[in-house]
Design brief:
By secondary structure, this protein is an alpha/beta fold. The chain is built from twelve helices and 17 strands. Among the domains are: about 10-50 and about 60-85 and about 115-190 and about 290-365, 3-Layer(bba) Sandwich (FAD/NAD(P)-binding domain); about 375-425, no CATH class. The strands form four sheets. Strands 4-12-13-14-11-15-17 form a seven-stranded mixed beta sheet, sandwiched between helices. The chain has a five-stranded parallel beta sheet with strand order 6-2-1-10-16, covered by helices on one side. Strands 7-8-9 form a three-stranded antiparallel beta sheet. The N and C termini lie far apart (about 75 Å). The structure holds flavin-adenine dinucleotide.
Amino acid sequence: MGRRQRTSAIVVGAGMAGLLAARVLSDHVDQVRILERDRLPGDAVPRGSVPQGRHAHVLLVAGQRLLDGWFPDLADELVAAGAVPLDADEPVRHRGRGHRIPSDPGFPALSMSRPLLEGTIRGRLLRQRPNVSVADGTPVDSLVLEGGRVVGVQVDGVRHRADLVVACTGRHTRFLDQLAGLGFPAPQVSAIRIDVACGTCVVPRRPDDLGGAPAVVVNDLPGDHRMGVMVPVEGDRWMITLGSFHGEAPPIEPAGYEEFARRLPAPVIADVLARSRVRTPVLTHRMPASQRRHVEWLDRTPPGFLVLGDAVCSLNPVHAQGMSSAALQARALGRAVARHGPTSPRLPRAFYRRAARVVDVPWRLAARAGGPGVVNRYLDMVFRAGRTSVPVARQALRVRNLLARPETLMTPAMVLRVLRAARRSPDDSEGAAR
Ligand SMILES: Cc1cc2nc3c(=O)[nH]c(=O)nc-3n(C[C@H](O)[C@H](O)[C@H](O)COP(=O)(O)OP(=O)(O)OC[C@H]3O[C@@H](n4cnc5c(N)ncnc54)[C@H](O)[C@@H]3O)c2cc1C
């Protein structure tokens, strides 16, 4: 019997998707190299090519569970680095128009800045998987093809060969354009206009802020035009992100920013801002649309190449699903590679089919927000019913956390529960915010 050929993979991009794709590939491929264009910082500080890393990032339970499986005891390491455990018994406060929204997911969670999460995962990946390496300061210019197959990438005129190239380059990706230029079909793109504008600042955290609650989400649901979140991050700080949809952006000068927070349906964030003499400058981010590249519909795609993460689907940040969606796609990649092998010409389509099932859920949830139709009216009713029915609130939360498919909200027993509870629930126009 001949010796097995050694296999290698290149992952382009060391963001959340790239790190997790490398983690799953390291189980199936002999050598995994991550090529990242940024210089990677030693400390938990934001970096240039991931501008969203300056804003509040919440990891949903689906993503957290996958991370726990791939990186045992990661949570302990994060806490040692300053991440804040959110006590499951003292749930995150959700404040809406006059309602305290039940939000008892029953799952312990951690809160930290995105750079701390990403940097800790990167460190763990490199320590735990000796067959994975990262080259930073290495911008990939193009794919290298031979005989219709991707066989590597080109960086500054130098070719790097690999059996599999996985592009985790974030929302913008040039490689699909390159392939289209070479005669491969380009994926259809769907977009949902969201016009999100957000502004973030960081302030010192005091234990008695929020009456001891671990974090707060204030929004104007349903309608969703403005919102604010305040989450604890390392260094005894709050990270405050205020946002608007299809509306006026949060101002960057301090007084205007605080005034924006005060006009939210509950003044809790404004109160913390008012007493915080030290504040970082407000940093802003805009996102015109959620965007999905339908790679699963491609009838021809070159062997040896895949895209994953925001490059496939970048979602409305308000639902906090992007990193968990990347983790679920990485799990799909692991399963597809386990079945077909890293060099199989069948791998891209098999992976894209699995990944589409994963991406479908957050995409459909995002697409429905505020839209017309019977299903949307029903989902609004689910939201209302969740204020008085714990089973409905729990199941809706499982769906929002990507732990259950939306169909589970449509079973006859659940529909009955929703209808009964929605009738008991207060109307949106009632009540003043507290
Ligand atoms: C304001 C905002 C708030 C958000 N909040 C949340 C949240 O609360 N929870 C959540 O789960 N998600 C959130 N998201 C979404 C989340 O940030 C993304 O889903 C996630 O970062 C996607 O990871 P990625 O690895 O696909 O892309 P990115 O994190 O963007 O990483 C892409 C990487 O590829 C590198 N790269 C690109 N091109 C090249 C190249 N040619 N050569 C080498 N390297 C390259 C870049 O430098 C970068 O490091 C938020 C997004 C925004 C905009």
